## 1
Amino acid sequence: MNPKLRVVIADDERPARSFLAALLRSFDSVEIVGEAEDGAQAVEVIERERPDLALLDLQMPEVDGLGVVRLIQKSRMPLVAFVTAHDEYAIKAFEMNAVDYLLKPVDPTRLAETLQRTQDRLEQADLRREEIAHIENAATAYEASNRKMYLERLPVRQQNEVVLLAVRDIASVEADGEVLHITTSRKETYSITYRLKDLQARLDPSQFIRLSRSALARLELISRVTTMPGGTYVVTLKNDQRLPVSRIQSRILREQFLRL
């Protein structure tokens, strides 16, 4: 008898995560060894549990599904299938690069195909490096296709008026539940009702960086990075805002922007 397929689920929406877990439990050949409610937690769970397969929601706060793959130590990389709402750019990128994906709501028959494909691939010892290359190529293709959709102006209310705020003027966005507090480079403040992860998906990632689960900032407005105990950072913006950086985002900041 083959050992059970060890699976980790990562999705920030509890109902979606519970639905997928229930489907997986209907397969006798599967063991759920971990669940994560965001990308940062997914990295920790995957590196600790070393599953055979990770089912990663494409859009998660702080670190998305593609970001999770980029952060996992290559020696601990499982096989990966992305779970996403219908996103034509993501699907095209995944199909072009032979990356497995599941559409929400996940269909049991399609899930069974993914599980069988995973079992087949686990028997090919030299496949891991090829899988990682496919995902990296898909990420590049997805980001290139999606770039033309980035916002240039953001409608925000100011008393009885709607202000079209230029995205280039935004210094930071901080979340308080589903209310986002926006601060500009001139220290103007606005609030909108929106989810941070949804807004981030519509902003150019070459211009904005996620600082934590509840904040992002414009890269070119970061003037100083201060090291804090435990290896995290606090960033200071040119408008004098000081914003803490989470542990996982400090790792990204250090690897991508603080090395010559």
Note: Residues 61 and 197 are 5 Å apart (CA to CA).
## 2
Amino acid sequence: MVFWYNCSMQTNNIIHNNFNPKQLKLPLSLDIKIPFDSEVRTFDEVFRKMEIGKYLIIDKDPRGRIGYHPVQMLKLILFCQMEKIQSLRDMEKAAKNDIRIMWLTDELKPSHQSIKTFMDCYLVDGIEKIFYELNEYLIKKEEIDTTKLYIDGTKVESRANKYTFVWRGSITQFRTKLYKKITQQLNTMNKRYQESDLSFSLYDSYDIEYIGKVKTYLENELLREKTIMVSGKGKHKTTLQRDFESMSAYYHKLIEYQQQLEIIGNDRNSYAKTDPSATFMHMKEDHMRNSQLKPGYNVQVGVADEYILHMDISSERNDYQTFIPFLEGFKKQYNFYPKYPVADAGYGGLINYRYLKLHNMELYQKYGMYSKDTKDKKRRNDPYFTLNLIKDNDDYVASNGDRLKYLYHNNRGNDVYLLPNGKHKEINDENLGYQKEVIENLNTKLGIELRIQRSIQAEGAFGVLKESFKLRRFRRKGTQNVKLELILTAIGYNLDKFHNKRYRIIQ
């Protein structure tokens, strides 16, 4: 026993003395080390079936060093998105240390700045086409039912500073005060220069061109009188110089207000100075519980069979206004409308229902009062409950036999009726018909299934994007850059979903 123990100890010592764990070992091929069910093999299989190279051609300056191969760079970025690696520096680190990425990209090791340059040059304009090319492949491969589209929206915070807000109401208010200052200044100048038969016209509001002419006239007067402009302590300014400086300040302030209003546009009421595309909105995460507004974007997704088929960003603060542009964007990419676009109560309304009917889509979208109209017993038992009324020529008849007499058609597009108790009631016949159809559709077997699946798929997709992919605050600024980041995340989500469904174990 002692002899064998000593021999084995001696043999082990000899082995360890001659063994170096850092020495070159077989196999040399990385392909052997990667399991058959690895995420990178799924990614490579999908990537080989797609013609991505046609979206990565740009006019490049022949001077300078040859850059990294664009297809290999795209593989690196998209696989990192699939693996939930979002940061550029984390991508650079993964390219140097992850054998899956080394195998996939032929050991490409770009710096984080090279990755950013590639994104700016190739992907800002081409990522949307790549996204829908991937979706076309997944639709055919997974036999996705595109007739049912589950739509939902959420608000994601911008990278802009939350204290750099500009409000439309503040601008218009300040501009009105500025008009009064200009009127006061022009009135003073008229009194001052009345001996020279000079008079400036006074208005309730002033445009930039008119104030610019006044400023130019005063500037010419300074040159004609050869006035030396002075400033600083102990220097006495002439009256003409003071007038010129006042009108010049008003002129530049009017230009500033006009530029701010142009940035805001007609469809929103605010923007952030450090990200003019972002609008101040209420976010779901309100840690201070004071309803503080933060700069952000309204993100809309359309999900079918657990895959994100369409995404869009908007500056609208509510979902209702985004519904039609979202479906039009879907139609532009896929050349058809989904037959069953399912959405929550934030999307239901007369304009959207009318649009759906016009394009032969079914009404499976709740409206604002849907829950009360279907579950509130006191409301449903009310004899004047709108859904229980029966049309009789121009009037309506209540369930208790009372007649609601038609009075007139108001400027909101509703008919006004007189109740027996003297009160007035507004009814829109077209919208009422749509609401009845929605209630009927959503209470069918198909409607119940669609409601359940919308909660699971659309809201579930946002849950994964926020928790797993950390989509809580954008890293980029500007509409195009934010959309790039959003679509990259959606591509990573779809690829990850495809791999998981492929190797899902049914217990």
Note: The chain has a mean pLDDT of 88.
